[in-house]
Amino acid sequence: MSKDQNTIGNATAQRSELHRKIWAIADDVRGAVDGWDFKQYILGILFYRFISENINEYFNIAEREAGDTDFDYAKISDEEAELDFKPNTVEEKGFFILPSQLFQNVTENAVQNENLNTDLANIFNAIEGSAIGTMAEDSIKGLFKDIDTTSDRLGATVAEKNKRLTDILKGIAGLSFGDFQKNDIDAFGDAYEYLISNYASNAGKSGGEFFTPQTVSKLLARLVMDGKTSINKVYDPTCGSGSLLLQMKKQFEEHIIEEGFFGQEINMTNFNLARMNMFLHNVNYNNFSIKRGDTLLNPLHLEEKPFDAIVSNPPYSIKWIGDDDPTLINDERFAPAGKLAPKNYADFAFIMHSLNHLSSSGRAAIVCFPGIFYRKGAEKVIRQYLVDKNFIDSVIQLPENLFFGTSIATCVLVLAKNKAENKVLFIDASKEFKKETNNNILDENNIEAIVKAFREKADIEYFSRSVGKEEIEKNDYNLSASTYVEKEDTREVIDIKVLNQEIAETVRKIDALRASINKIVKELDDGE
Fold first, then answer.
1. DSSP state, 300?
2. N or C: which end of the chain has fewer CB within 10 A?
C-alpha cells in the first residue's frame, strides 16, 4: 500500500470513529432537549475545546522553540499569563484565554465543581470580552450567545445542569483528534459539519434550510473556480453556517483565495455558527468577515465588493417588502432590471444582489427554486434583462432529494459578466446522482460530468445544449433546462409487425380455447 493510500485509509477510519463517538455523545446527553436546539451546546463546547487547544499549542510551540522544552501554558498561573502572554495575543489570534479557563482544566475539575454552569458562562463572557476594542471584536462578539449554560433546558436544578454539562465536557474531551498539528483529517471541522448535517437531516426544514449538503457545495465551488488560478475573495450573501464558503477553502489552497471569505447571515444562531466554523477550519479572524443583517435591505459588504467568486443557496421564494418600499427601485442592485422581485418571491432580489457584487471577471453559482425560471410577471422581466445583457452563463437542473427537508429538484444559476458569446448553456443533470439512505448525493463522477459539460459548453444529447438569445426570446424567456434539452425517451421501442403477429397468435389461441370450452359444455348438455 502506498503512503497516500495509507493516509486515505487512516483518514477514513479516523473520520468514521469520530462520527460514531460524537453522535453517541449528542444522543446520550440530549435527553428531553430538542436535538436541533441542543446542538448549540455540543457545537459550542466543541468550539471551546478547539480554541483552548489552539491557543495552548500556540504558546507552547513559541516557548519550546525559545528553549523552554518543558513549558506547558495550561500549568502556569493566571497572573503569569496576564503579565507575560496576554499582550499582543489578541491582535494575533483574535482572543485570549487564561490557563484556568482552558477546556482541559475546566473539564478536569468539572465533577467537583458545584458552580460549573456559572463558571462556564463567565469563561465564555471573558473570551468574548478579551477582543473588545480590538480589530477582532466583530469576529468574536456574541460567539457564545446561544450556549446558555444557566438555561432550564439543561435541567430544572443547578445539579442537573452541571451533570449534563459535565457529560458534554467529558464526552468531547474523550474525542481523539490526535496531534493538534498532524491530523489526517480536519477533525474539528469535520466533527462540526457531521453534527450540523445530522441535526439538519433529523430536523427537516427547521435545520436543513440552513445547511447546504457538502456535495452540492463542492459542485458550486468547482463551477465558480473552473479555469481560474486565483481569485480576490469569495462571498456568500446568505451564508447560513458557512458551509459554502468553507467548501471553497477545502477545494482550493489558501493562496488561491487571496483576500479571504465574506458572508452575511440574518439568523443569529447561524451567524454565530458560521463564525465558529471559520475558526474551526483555521481561518483566522483577519481572513474572514461574517456580518449579521438582512442582505436585501441592509447589505453589509458594499465596501468590500466586487468579488471574483460568489456561492449562494438563498432561501427559496420567501416574502420581502418589494415595491411596498418605493425607494428600492432606485437601489443600484435592483434598478438595472427595471422591476423588483415580487413581494411573495424574493429569489430574483438575491440574484440581482449577487450580480451587483460580482466582479467583471468573476462568476456566481446560485442554487435556485425552479419556478423562478418560468413564472411570468416581474420575474420574466428580470430574466429578460439578464439574458439580454448576457449575464447568464448556465442553468443546471439538479436531481431531486439532494437537500435536507425538501425533495424539490433545485437548479443552479451561473452568472458571469465577461462572456464571449451571447448563449446560455442548459444542463439537465437530473439523472446525475448516487442514491443514499435518506438523500441523494452528487458523487465525484456526477460532479465531474456536470463541470466538464460546463467547461466545454458542449452539446451532449439528452444532457446539455448551448442556446442562443433568439431561441430563448422565442420561448418567452423561459429558462427551464427541460425547454431546451430533450429528455431521453426510455420507453421500449415496439416493432408493430412483431406485435401484430403476437396479437394474431394470441387471438388464434383464444379462439381454440373457446371452441374447446364450447365442445365440453355441449357434451355436458347432451349427457343430461
1. S
2. C
The grid coordinates listed for 99 are 490557563
Extract the residue ranges of the chain whose pLDDT is less than 50.
1, 3-4, 7-8, 180-185, 204-209
507575560: which residue's cell?
84
Quote the cell numbers at residue 501.
403477429
Q: Which helix (H) or strand (E) holds 360?
A: strand 358-368
Does 370 sit behind a cis peptide bond, omega within 30 degrees of 0 on the bond before it?
Answer: no
How far is Cα 381 from Cα 383, in angstroms, rounded to an integer? 5
3-state secondary structure at position 412? strand
CB contact set of 392 (below 8 Å; sequence gap of 6+): 386, 413, 414, 415, 424, 479
Q: Which helix (H) or strand (E) holds 411?
A: strand 411-416
Q: For residues 20 and 15, what is the distance between their CA atoms, to the nearest angstrom?
A: 9
46 within 8 A of 191, measured Cβ to Cβ? yes
Tell me which DSSP letter residue 408 carries.
-
The answer to whether 46 and 172 are in contact (CB under 8 A) is yes
| Spacing of C-alpha 168 from chain mean position | 26
Integer Cα distance of 190 and 54 in angstroms: 16
CA distance 466 to 487: 15
Count of Cβ atoms closer than 10 Å to residue 388 Cβ? 14
CA distances in angstroms from 128 to 47, 118, 145, 281, 345, listed in the order given: 13, 16, 10, 19, 38
By the 8 A CB rule, do 448 and 416 touch? no
How much is the pTM? 0.85
Residue pair 502/496 in contact by the 8 Å Cβ criterion: no
- CA–CA gap between residue 403 and residue 422 (Å, rounded): 32
Q: Which of 7, 53, 30 is nearest to 195 (CA)?
A: 30
Structure confidence by residue, pLDDT tens digits, 17-39? 878 888 888 777 766 556 666 77
CB-based contact 316:340 (threshold 8 Å): no
pLDDT digits (tens, 9 = 90+) for 227-263: 999 999 999 999 988 989 999 998 887 679 999 999 9
